[in-house]
Amino acid sequence: MPIVEGAGPDERMQNVNKAEYQGFELEGEWLFAPQWTAYATLAYVEGRDQTGDEYLRFVPPMNGLLGVRFDQGETGFWGALELDWAAQQDHTPKGVPRNSGWTTLNARVGYRFAVGATRQEFILAAENLADADYTNYLSTSRGVELREPGVNATATWRLEF
Asked: How far apart are CA 104 and CA 125, in angstroms?
């Protein structure tokens, strides 16, 4: 949906007559040692307004994930270290700012166990360990630039019954 020219802070959107999206997704996993897995994803999509031959808004840039995981199985410890990234988004329509690429380093550890008929898991996670200052292209709207959080951590207890 292109921006109506001169809309200013009260941007108005309009529908496109004909749009086309094309892209691909790849995913791979490699068990390189007992209990150790390397994995990666890659996604790319491009959207164009066929009427005005212009890029569409809100289409993510090429992005992916690269990680390594240790897992003891149904019960026991597990951990993962991941690089999450997105390339620069420079396929934007007129009047829409471009976005720089970014990379974050994330880590998770957990412990799974069973108690009676329940499965339980404790998880500690930390994201953006390098404290990257970045903007996710899909987190911007109507001229407002939202920065992603710096280093952040979570603790989770999961109970399945």
From this structure: 13
Q: Distance between CA atoms of 140 and 136, rounded to whole angstroms?
A: 7
Q: Which amino acid is at 148?
A: E
Residue 146 is encoded by which pair of tokens?
A: 């939202």
Q: CB neighbours (10 Å) of residue 128?
A: 20
pLDDT in tens, 59-106: 999 999 999 999 999 999 999 999 999 999 988 888 777 889 999 999
Q: Are 121 and 155 in contact (CB under 8 A)?
A: no
Strand runs (DSSP E) across the chain, as ranges?
19-33, 36-49, 54-55, 63-71, 76-86, 102-115, 118-127, 152-160
- Residues shown for the chain: 161
Helix/strand/coil for 138: helix
pLDDT, one tens digit per residue, over 111-143 is: 999 999 999 999 999 999 999 999 888 776 666
Q: How many helices, marked H, and strands, marked E, lie in the chain?
A: 0, 8
Comparison of pLDDT for 16 and 13, the residue scoring more: 16
Closest C-alpha among 105, 100, 89, 91 to residue 134: 100
SS3 at position 56:
coil
